[in-house]
Amino acid sequence: MIVHRSKKSRVKHKASYPAYEHRVSFYKIPPTENVTIEEFEGWAIDRLQVLREIDNAKMKGLKPDEVNERLNKVVAKYLPLREGNEQDIRKDVVSHFVLRMAYCNPADRKWFITQERSLLDYRLTDVSITDFLEENDLDYPTLSKEEYDSVQDDLKAVAETSLVFDRSGAVNKIVPLLAKLGPHSFHKMPFEEAAELVAQRRVLVRGGQAYIYHEQLVSIIIGRFQGHLAEALLHTYKALPQSRERFQRLTHFLDTVSKQYLGVDYSQSRTTSITGNVTPDQVDGFAKQSFPQCMRNMHRRLRTDHHLKHAGRMQYGLFLKGIGMSLEDALNFWRAEFTRVRTAQQFESQYAYNVRHHYGKEGKSANYTPYSCVKIISSPPVGSGETHGCPYRQDLDTLARDLQNQGISGSTTKNIIELSQGGHFTIACAKHFEALHAGTTDISVVHPNGYFEMSVKYHAAKQSGQPLPANLTGNTAPSAAPPSAAASSSSSSSSSTPSIPTDTPAPSSIKTDTDSTMADSTPSGPTDTPSSD
Question: What is Dmax (Cα atoms) for the chain?
Fold first, then answer.
């Protein structure tokens, strides 16, 4: 894969390029043609949108048809694979290999493999399994008539239990199916390749061979793909360090993309059309009605102690900026609270700089963005006396008391706590939102300012008697940044590393123009701010 800085420098690939020969594949052949940096980064982010949507759908426990409905929308938007469209295949292949490199770190592989498995399973419903086997050199021959006749009764006995449910879970008409069975209906393979089906007693085993009904091949294919991808990720993990120093732009992107926030830019308030500019006297009301729990906690601590430590001031201060508080009002807000226990001179000398820095009026004059859920969750654990961070990954006893004090039922509280214990922090937050906003369903929370925006719109609709917005009732797929916007913000968060298959060249084969430099991205928080606590 040769990476160039601009589209002008890219040599157009040949239509017969082997990596793009088949619409759905195991990605055994890596791309070695020219790829622009825009394609390298933007396509990887688009694929990540799809993989995250798969993960979100599964974590919400949606039914198979509901999952497919959501995937139809997000795949059509970010990663279509239209018949005969080689550019779609090219994007699919390139994006897969880029994310292999981004997820080859041992800590990240399981998530990537799980989502790629699900994506392949989804796509296999739209292709001929027979053609897929042939295109990917998977040799699972059907039975000869003699073989079939020798085990026919046993095969039909197994089939009676194996065919009751099709892939969508619907009950099949067993008798007509059994009547159509013949040598072409079954494949044979070494029994160890069908270990999962053997363990479930859903296949016939004779002489070390497993006899698989044709419709069961999907699970075999998915298993083969998982093994192939796991080996490929290990290979990439070993090979990638050789290229890190040579291609700093690319490795920086690969290190950050897995933790990257891909949603709306909240560097400027999007809710002022409803709320107007938020002033200090409005904050208490908004905190009680529309703040996410993380911001409620910090606001409560600020009102109680008249102080927040440095990390809390950054997280809360940028959130307030994002909901529409001006620099002047922010200075007044923090000054009024801090000077309850210190002098105005102490505030000006120790804390006012931090507030101005959030708004780009000090230091690098950068337009800092409010923290996303990904950034908050991936930050180091809070220390003594600190209140920032994600409440769903911290003191769950305190969280449970807060939920009960907010009038949330015991069963819902239990569900939220269990989600938190399972590491599903944003889903726990979404369930919390739904509990506080009656009538909302299938909420997706990826940013504290997004939570606030949805809540404000909810209450505005309720007060005016208007229907709830579609994104609060599960009628639309979660919104996300368009590819162009996402590609331009490649350094918004923290890190993770990538991967390749065993037969993939080492990343040292990736080439980039020598004048390629990392594009500036919107900073996600001040880095040179004095940290007076």
Answer: 95
